[in-house]
Design brief:
Blueprint lengths: L1 H25 L2 E6 L7 H16 L4 E6 L7 H9 L5 E5 H4 L18 H9 L1 H9 L5 E7 L4 E5 L13 E4 L3 H10 L2 E4 L5 H6 L5 E4 L2 H5 L8 E8 L3 E6 H6 L2 H37 L2 E3 L4 H7 L1 H6 L3 H12 L4
Parallel strand pairs: 1-2, 1-3, 6-7, 9-11
Antiparallel strand pairs: 3-10, 4-10, 5-8, 5-9
Helix pairs in contact: 2-11, 6-14
Bound molecules: alpha-D-glucopyranuronic acid.
Length: 330
């Protein structure tokens, strides 16, 4: 009797284990994705769209759980977690990524892109695609780019020319290219994490910052900086990245689904970006009293001109800069 029971139990346990194992094969993979923007930011919405597409394309086998507002750490911390295998995906930007993978520095050169079309040709072309895979050995690869508009200065006074920047402390991201740019324009570069910037501006730790218009509303920077001067010095893409090991572990069909969803969300984001940037500008003007200042760009361009020649001498970025320059309209 006892023997029979044991036997039955063993059989049952084996069956349970077998079911568990088979379930495991098809169990959903949930990828954790960290970023530092608010839920109201267009890039959050575009990544939600991407997550829905991935779920759809994989019949629910790959899910993405998005953690906004730097809940899992600053952009830098997220990249470090990703490299250690404690996080699967992150949305960062080329400025932040430059210190992890120098190739991203190519995108951070001021006045590199003529306009938005040139920017898209670069992202979708050889340079953009090669840079996405350049960082494999650093523990992550890029999946796609998200439009983040053009970056301009915002402070408590209009910045009509580089002369108005003299002596100001301007917050930047931790990027060597940003440091060089701000120095050439005559201001003092102050690296800070994005989440610390509101308070730093409010308390006068820095005199101003530079970013696209959505920062005024989604990060409420328009409450503490009332002049947005449209010098549009850089067009720095946001970048969606995934850990190299996480990527390698995904079956090929899941990799393909993820890449397809990421690419599609890039183009979904393009329209959303246009629409939501216009809404941000309106909200910043009407509800926050922010003034948008049109400026002559030439003096800003002249100040950073040396960076174009310098870039062609840096091996990590020169070939990409050449490709991008050749994609300009003649
Ligand atoms: C942009 C970008 C963020 C980045 C921020 C910054 O908003 O989308 O990824 O953190 O600039 O200036 O830090």
């Amino acid at each position: 009797m006892v023997a029979l029971k044991k036997n039955t139990l063993t059989k049952l346990a084996t069956a349970v284990l077998a079911v568990a194992a088979s379930v495991n094969v098809y169990a959903a993979t949930t990828l954790k994705l960290s970023h530092n923007q608010d839920r109201s930011h267009p890039v959050h919405k575009s990544m939600q769209h991407m997550a829905e597409l991935v779920k759809d394309y994989t019949d629910g086998e790959v899910k993405i759980r998005i953690y906004p507002n730097a809940q899992l750490g600053t952009q830098r911390e997220s990249l470090e977690l990703l490299q250690n295998g404690a996080l699967d995906m992150a949305k960062s930007n080329a400025s932040e990524l430059e210190s992890f993978e120098p190739a991203y520095g190519a995108f951070n050169i001021p006045y590199l892109f003529q306009d938005r079309d040139h920017y898209y040709r670069a992202m979708n072309g050889e340079a953009g695609q090669q840079i996405l895979s350049a960082s494999y050995d650093k523990g992550f690869i890029g999946l796609t780019y998200y439009d983040a508009g053009a970056r301009s200065f915002y402070t408590s006074k209009p910045i009509n020319s580089p002369a108005d920047l003299q002596g100001l402390k301007i917050r930047i991201q931790p990027s060597p290219t940003a440091v060089r740019m701000i120095e050439l324009m005559g201001a003092a570069p102050t690296p800070l994490a994005y989440g610390e910037l509101y308070t730093a501006m409010q308390q006068g730790v820095v005199d101003g910052a530079e970013n696209n218009e959505t920062a005024l509303t989604t990060a409420r920077h328009g409450e503490v900086a009332k002049f947005f001067s449209l010098d549009e010095h850089t067009m720095i893409p946001d970048v969606l990245v995934i850990g190299s090991k996480v990527w390698d572990k995904l079956p090929e069909e899941h990799q393909a689904a993820l890449k397809k969803a990421a690419d599609e969300s890039m183009m979904y984001h393009k329209d959303l970006w246009t629409k939501m940037t216009e809404e941000s500008i309106q909200e910043a003007k009407d509800k926050m009293g922010v003034e948008f200042v049109e400026v002559a760009k030439q003096p800003f361009m002249d100040a950073v001109k040396p960076m174009h020649e310098e870039a062609l001498k840096v091996p990590a970025i020169s070939k990409y800069v050449e490709i991008i320059n050749n994609q300009a309209k003649i």
